[in-house]
Fold this sequence. Notes:
This protein is an all-alpha fold. It has one helix spanning 6-140. The longest helix has 135 residues, at 6-140.
Amino acid sequence: xxxxxxxxxxxxxxxxxxxxxxxxxxxxxxxxxxxxxDKETMRDMISDLVEATNMANGAIGQLKDVAGEADNALNAxxxxxxxxxLELANHVVAGQNVVEKISKIxxxxxxSETIARVETRRxxxxxxxxxxxxxxxxxxx
Length: 141
């Protein structure tokens, strides 16, 4: 071997490998620090997510309560509307009965008025006949 001792070559290779290992450790350390920082950020995000989930659950509970109240109010109004519908239907039927009675009374009044006119004409005609008969008698006498 020419003038370069083997021991020095091996130690040079070991020192180069040691420098590469130190550089790689430095890069890994930076990545671990970054990952650790991301871990804290991830914890904060998870905490915020849990808080948002709890708020959403509370809002859903409130919406359920409001929906229940709205349903109860709507049912009450529907029942009231049904009562008014029945009452209105009863009033309509009663109104129709009154109109029918008024119609019958009006019809009866017209018939009696017509009968009275006919009777008045008959009485007038009978009086005229009587007058004519008496005049004839008076002339004949």
